[in-house]
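INFO batch 0412 | record 1 of 1 | parsing
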Amino acid sequence: MEWTVYNFECADEGARQSLLSWFEEENPVEIPEDEDSVHGALTDADGEDIRADVAWIAEYVYVLTNPRVAGLLEESADRWERAVVAEFDSTTETCTEATLYRSEDGEPVEGARYEGVEELGGQGMVYRFAMDHQFRFRAFAHAPPTPMITKHFGAFDAVVGLGWGSDRMDFFERETGVAPTARGLEYLEDDPVLEAGEFYEAVESE
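INFO prediction complete | emitting tokens
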């Protein structure tokens, strides 16, 4: 079985709210006030309702489904700046494909594609998109779709406790083939889920 995760990067929090309002207007999902996630459904281009887990933070919206939601990327493209659609194998918990899009005149345009990378998991993709594109990728929204072999990472804890920094950079560099950059590290350190200095706490406490 596979799961699909949509990562939407909006211009700012106001644009993110516009995207969430569109979800609510066009799909059978209610976006609660004073919350940061919801379980609901999205309607695909064929009129079928697909169960979805939706989470949002800062200028990002994360949507997890099992099958892809046909038409979702195209119909929402005038409300986001960049987006990543990724598919994961639930048995191996590895990413089988991830595609980065940018929105041009309200249409999604493919910018980069990663596929067929053996044993590349969610953490590696978070690292790769931060280093290569300064994009806050998540493998899940609020929660994973099924019980996981390893401890799961939601939209609000994906970069907490991973031990990034110093000695752990070698591991992610080997896994992804992408060298760490000062700009990418700064981007990870500045993640909105983290308190000041928390990025390195796991490394320092080992």
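INFO post-check: Residues 13-26 form the longest helix (14 residues).
INFO record closed
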